[in-house]
Design a protein that fits this description.
Layout (H helix, E strand, L loop, with lengths): L7 H8 L3 H8 L7 H13 L6 H8 L4 E6 L5 H16 L3 E6 L4 H13 L4 E4 L12 H5 L4 E4 L9 E5 L1 H14 L5 E5 L5 H16 L9 E3 L5 H12 L7 E4 L2 H13 L9 E3 L5 H5 L6 E2 L3 H21 L9 E4 L3 E2 L5
Parallel strand pairs: 1-2, 1-3, 3-4, 4-5, 5-11, 6-7, 6-8, 8-9
Antiparallel strand pairs: 10-12
Helix pairs in contact: 1-2, 2-3, 5-13, 8-9, 10-11
Length: 342
């Protein structure tokens, strides 16, 4: 049998006072006597009274809950982002509710509706790989619920955004391979929709163009799920070509580790015969042998910045619901980390 939840009415009846007096006593109103306050607080503690956060939220139209939707949970980058979000929200007195889209647009839509129905004060999200746009987030806009997109964003959707310069990061990675003597460069890229995957592909192309190197379509492979096994399978295909690549830039570190595994099975020496650079600076890049050169992606800072932008917008809207909110796109710095794979 479900346990009865103690209400203000229960306390009021037991003490023979009004519900309003109980409520005021718990909030330390000056017009309630010290004796009454003591009696109310003592009984509230004894009966384990907990304020009904849903009722308070409906009254104040505020839940102090921030929603977060991420594409995957196992990714080192996303766990870092969550730490950044939670740390900032905790300082500001907000709780965090996390949901997963599994990179599926249909599930992402459901999670947006769940967050809306849970009455979150605002939402932070990184788009699923299947989501070409953020159109299914428009219910938030209609009800003035702030949204911050990070990492995988939709540039056309009006909201605050936090990202890194993926194009520049990919350019750095590719130029590093060229500087190390690579002449035939392959890129195992991300799916077609996500903007960050497109930008990393563009950065790869920029570096080839700058150094007058040919972009060979046979050396471009497209991941669907962006996994270690895709990196492994594509590397096997690329390295079995009559004219194989001598350098491979991968869309993420997971994919890069798959490349290293395949090359080692084919008895290729890294970095002597093949050089590899990943992207995101995850733990796996440090522990794999040889360790993987990569582009640093400041996950914690991205999370913290997204939470700051969101809470600033929530509080601005609270103070003045009529004035239009100006949206920002913040681009954080990134840099190359050289390890054994190059």
């Amino acid at each position: 049998m479900a346990q009865h939840r103690t209400t203000l009415k229960d306390i009021a009846e037991e003490l023979g006072i009004t519900v309003t007096s109980v409520s005021k006593a718990l909030k330390d109103y000056p017009d309630i006597s010290v004796e009454t306050k003591k009696a109310v607080k003592k009984l509230a503690k004894k009966l384990n009274y907990q304020p009904d956060s849903r009722a308070i939220a409906m009254k104040r139209n505020k839940s102090n809950i921030i929603g977060v939707i991420i594409p995957e949970i196992v990714h080192f980058f996303f766990s870092n982002v969550i730490q950044g979000i939670m740390s900032y929200c905790d300082q500001k007195g907000y709780q965090v509710l996390i949901a997963l889209s599994n990179n599926q647009k249909s599930l992402e839509k459901k999670q947006v509706n769940l967050m809306f129905n849970t009455r979150v004060d605002g939402l932070i999200a990184s788009l699923a790989n299947e989501s070409a746009t953020a159109k299914h987030f428009k219910i938030l806009k209609e009800y003035n619920i702030p949204l911050v997109l990070f990492d995988k964003i939709d540039e056309r959707f009006e909201c605050n955004k936090v990202k890194i310069d993926d194009r520049f990061g990919a350019f750095l990675a590719t130029e590093h391979l060229i500087a190390k003597g690579c002449k035939r460069l392959a890129h195992i890229r991300g799916p077609q929709h996500p903007l960050n995957a497109k930008e990393r592909y563009n950065g790869f192309c920029d570096a080839l163009k700058k150094h007058n190197l040919e972009l060979d379509p046979a050396l471009i492979k497209i991941c669907e799920k962006v996994t270690l096994s895709e990196g492994y399978d594509f590397a096997k295909e690329l390295l079995a070509l009559d004219n194989p690549p001598d350098g491979i830039f991968t869309v993420t570190d997971q994919v890069g580790v798959g490349v290293i595994k395949a090359a080692q099975e084919m008895n290729l020496k890294i970095p002597e015969q093949l050089k590899v650079v990943g992207f995101s600076d995850s733990q796996i890049a440090q522990v794999v042998k040889p360790s993987l050169s990569t582009i640093h992606q400041p996950g914690y800072e991205i999370g913290e910045t997204a939470a700051r932008l969101l809470i600033e917008e929530i509080e601005t809207r609270e103070a003045d619901s009529e004035s239009p909110v100006g949206f920002k796109q913040i681009t954080l710095d990134t840099y190359l980390i050289v390890r054994e794979s190059t």
